[in-house]
Design a protein that fits this description.
The longest helix has 15 residues. Helix content is 36%, strand content 18%. It contains 5 helices and 5 strands; from the N terminus they run H-H-E-H-E-E-E-H-E-H. It has a single domain, classed as Rossmann fold (3-Layer(aba) Sandwich), CATH 3.40.50.360. The chain binds flavin mononucleotide.
């Protein structure tokens, strides 16, 4: 389990990217950690992400993790027909929480979490994706009942 909130990978610098995508054995601490994060992803059967909405998007710590682990020839490749995901044998379970409710227009247009995560899963070839939402946590009773429904959905997995 990686707690990106407590121990985030730093933002990806150009030199670290170069090391991540090379066979160099002399690696910076960040490239070593990035390669470890990629190895964890490749070894997993199920990717479970617990994601709070931060300013309508994913937390930057999760974006930094994606920047390290989305890797050509490991998680995706480009063909003459376009990109092809390489993690087709994996599943994803994604838990998304937010203070507000983005389930209907116009607020749904401000949800850059679920579409972003679905796009990234698809890009990596993960098509078996379950999304569970605990939204509206700042909206009183409605949020409480949505959180209970989310817990029930998790129990039912
Ligand atoms: C920096 C920051 C930005 C946030 N931005 C949003 C936001 O754009 N929309 C929203 O609905 N909630 C936002 N929240 C609330 C979190 O999504 C929410 O606290 C989190 O999902 C945890 O839910 P909980 O309060 O039920 O534990 C933000 C929280 C923080 C700390």
């Amino acid at each position: 389990m990686r707690d990106l909130g407590a121990s985030p990978l730093p933002h990806l610098r150009g030199d670290v990217l170069g090391q991540m995508r090379s066979d160099a054995t002399e690696l910076s601490a960040q490239a070593t950690e990035g390669k470890r994060a990629l190895a964890e992803l490749l070894a997993a059967d199920i990717l479970v992400l617990a994601v709070p909405m931060y300013n309508f998007s994913v937390p930057s710590a999760l974006k930094a993790w994606f920047d390290h682990v989305l890797h050509p020839a490991k998680t995706f490749e480009y063909t003459s027909a376009g990109p092809r995901g390489l993690l087709k044998d994996k599943k994803a379970v994604i838990l998304i929480s937010s203070a507000g409710d983005y389930s209907a227009v116009p607020a749904s247009g401000m949800d850059f979490v679920e579409p972003n995560l679905r796009a990234i899963m698809g890009f990596m070839g993960i098509t078996d994706v379950t999304v569970i939402k605990a939204d509206g946590s700042a909206m009183g009773e409605a949020g409480i009942s949505k959180k209970s429904a989310a817990f029930a959905a998790i129990e039912a997995l």
